[in-house]
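Page 37, continued from 36.
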């Protein structure tokens, strides 16, 4: 990256280097220095399975258990839906306390992951989703920690600029990380296309997107916190509380990702 920034060819000096290298970005470390990963105390298991049609074939579901486990599942394929089935993308969030003091190990074999899932949710009886089939028919089940990083107020250094998870890693519970990454890419591409000076293009991109995505990072943390609080409440009122939290989250993301929404950061041009 240092070679890129100080390249001898003047042509190269007009080209930005985009760091889209994810949550463990080395470009980020170059750009803003080391920043701590924040662990949300949970393991996520996720998969995709082709199953019989779930409910009306369009519904997003969130199921919570008294131990704090949360299952999110929704259909992701219109062609499969047209054929009368559902391709279900699912994520199970498991708080560390469920493992009774043992920290779960990531990267277990598929067999071990399926065994863990069987013991965690194998006995859930849902009339709209066959949990056993969901686990069995997911070709690969991935496990991750629930992680993000604190929002920062700078994404660039010289002609090096961050986007996506490198810039704003967020809890995935609000399903926004990839969407925000795509908006970043479109915004940066637009700025580079219309602005010949790469420093100005980068500054325009950062000042448009940094405040918006920082707000989404914080909105995801808030939603996670609230949902964990709701888990311990009476089941008669729990659904309503979850609905309110989800709808507040959606509203917050909509409001705060509008152009010119309020800023929690700033950007300066550094050459
Ligand atoms: C369980 C879970 C569920 C999610 N669900 C959703 C969802 O429903 N909706 C949504 O919008 N988002 C979701 N996300 C978030 C989404 O996956 C990320 O926000 C998105 O992938 C970020 O894209 P990215 O391109 O910035 O980073 P990544 O997708 O992480 O891509 C970074 C790429 O850079 C490569 N790379 C890294 N370091 C180097 C290096 N040194 N040299 C070369 N290459 C390198 C990596 O191999 C990788 O290919 C979820 C995330 C998780 C963990």
């Amino acid at each position: 990256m240092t070679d890129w920034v100080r390249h001898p060819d003047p042509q190269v000096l007009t080209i930005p280097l985009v760091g889209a290298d994810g949550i463990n970005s080395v470009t980020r470390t170059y750009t803003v220095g080391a920043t701590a990963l924040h662990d949300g105390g949970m393991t996520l298991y996720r998969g995709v399975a082709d199953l019989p049609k779930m409910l009306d074939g369009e519904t997003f579901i969130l199921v919570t258990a008294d131990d704090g486990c949360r299952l999110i599942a929704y259909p992701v394929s219109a062609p499969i839906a047209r054929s009368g089935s559902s391709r279900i993308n699912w994520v199970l969030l498991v708080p560390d306390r469920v493992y009774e003091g043992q920290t779960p190990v990531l990267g277990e074999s598929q067999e071990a992951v399926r065994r863990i899932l069987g013991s965690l949710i194998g006995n859930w009886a849902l009339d709209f989703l066959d949990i056993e089939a969901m686990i069995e028919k997911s070709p690969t089940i991935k496990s991750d920690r629930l992680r993000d990083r604190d929002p920062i107020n700078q994404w660039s250094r010289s002609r090096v600029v961050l986007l996506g998870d490198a810039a704003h890693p967020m809890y995935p519970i609000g399903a926004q990380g990839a969407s925000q990454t795509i908006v970043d890419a479109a915004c940066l591409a637009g700025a580079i296309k219309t602005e010949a000076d790469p420093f100005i293009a980068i500054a325009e991109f950062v000042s448009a997107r940094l405040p918006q995505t920082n707000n989404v990072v914080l909105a995801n943390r808030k939603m996670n916190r609230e949902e964990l609080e709701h888990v311990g409440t009476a089941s008669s009122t729990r659904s309503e509380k979850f609905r309110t939290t989800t709808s507040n989250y959606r509203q917050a993301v909509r409001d705060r990702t509008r152009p010119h929404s309020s800023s929690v950061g700033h950007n300066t041009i550094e050459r």
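The chain has eight helices and eight strands. Flag for discussion at group meeting. The pocket of flavin-adenine dinucleotide is lined by residues 20-22, 26, 44, 46, 91, 144, 164-166, 172, 175-179, 181 (CB under 6 Å).
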